[in-house]
Amino acid sequence: MLTAALIVLGVTVAITAAAIAASLAYSVVFPRHHDVAAPDPHTQAADRDMALRLEGHVRAVASRPHNLAYPDALDETAREIETRLIALAAHPTRHTFAVDGRDVANIEVVVEADADSRAERETIVIGAHYDSPDDSPGAHDNGTGVAALIELARLMRERAPGARRVRLVFFVNEEAPYGKTDAMGSLVHARRLRADGERVVGMIALETIGYFSTRPGSQNFPFPFDHVYRDRGDFVAFVGLVGARTFTRSALAAFRATGAFPSIGGVAPGFIAGIDMSDHWAYDQCGFPALMVTDTAPFRNPFYHQTCDTPDTVDYMSLARIVRGLDGMVATLAGQPTRDRPGSASAMPVRFGIRHG
User: Fold this and answer.
1) For 180, left (φ over 0), alpha (ψ -120 to 50), or beta?
2) Per-residue pLDDT tens digits for 162-174
3) How many CA atoms lie within 13 A of 127 on its CB side?
4) What is the pTM for the complete model shown?
5) Alpha-carbon torsion (69, 72, 73, 77), positive or negative
């Protein structure tokens, strides 16, 4: 009997180990161990200019708490985002809905596809929530994502239209108590696109992308990924839900092709801590491939959801390098022509407009 029990135990352990190994093999789309070339002096100068713009965006939209517990500040943040987009001639549109007796809004900019494209009805969504958690100013969570999205709108003006429409969306109500409820802005938006029959080929949420450290022990991971990646928080992660493996691979490959920042990528089910903690959850619920780009937030940043999450804690040079990579990623995913340089003959402005179907 003892021998039989040991055999059963051994088989169970072997099956469990094989299952964990198979799950990791599926989940780890890209390991982090890759070389990142140092930026050339021209790129560094451009990054410094972008870092200053990013800091200006973060300070403007995330210097005090702004959510439905602070409704006036939430409204002011929305208006500040719109003002900055209008200055780019990006034509933002408000999509307003009522929550707890107050009007709140998602803010959207649509970058239309080339009218001659066969893939014109295909859409890429890039989004970031602009509400802050609790009593936090939310500079990191999620002023960094908002600032990056504003800069992407600026950069996309320097490029000709692509094969796919791009929707840049600033979401309200990602934070508690509204996240994963009918009042969540991204869920409202995703449901509208699904109802309209829009073909969303992928959604990317920009979520907390401004805190980094090269110190050993500065990075944590949920099990089992703590046995895969090293413990320095000096990278950005592309984190997809299980149905987004192909899209995650494509997005991260495009980011690495033009970006100069360390990155990892993978997919996992939502029950693993942190995997579905952003607006990509909403699009996954509606059947669209979705991922978030993140610095892993609570697994790294000691200021996460604290009142000390202020603009001076953000690493703006690293954020600028990430935005450069995201710009190239979006161009690749949307099929936009490569920009030679701003102001060149090939750098034709894209068409900003409103499209709902």
Assistant:
1) left
2) 999 999 999 999 9
3) 32
4) 0.88
5) positive
Lowest mean pLDDT among 236-240, 255-259, 290-294: 255-259
Among 208, 132, 206, 122, residue whose Cα is nearest residue 169:
206
Alpha carbon distance 52, 317 (integer Å): 9
pLDDT digits (tens, 9 = 90+) for 102-142: 999 999 999 999 877 655 579 999 999 999 999 999 999 99
Residue 308, beta-bridge partner list: none
Residues of 177-195 as b/e, b for ≥16 C-beta within 10 angstroms?
ebbbeebbbbbbbbeebee
Q: Tell me 230's DSSP state.
A: -
Q: What single-letter amino acid sits at 144?
A: T
Dihedral (CA of 82, 86, 90, 92) sign:
positive
Q: Contact, 67 vs 132, CB < 8 A?
A: yes
The alpha helices in 28-127, defined as continuous H runs, are: 41-61, 71-87
Cα-to-chain-centroid distance, residue 161: 22
**How many helices (H) and strands (E) are present in the chain, helices listed first?**
8, 10
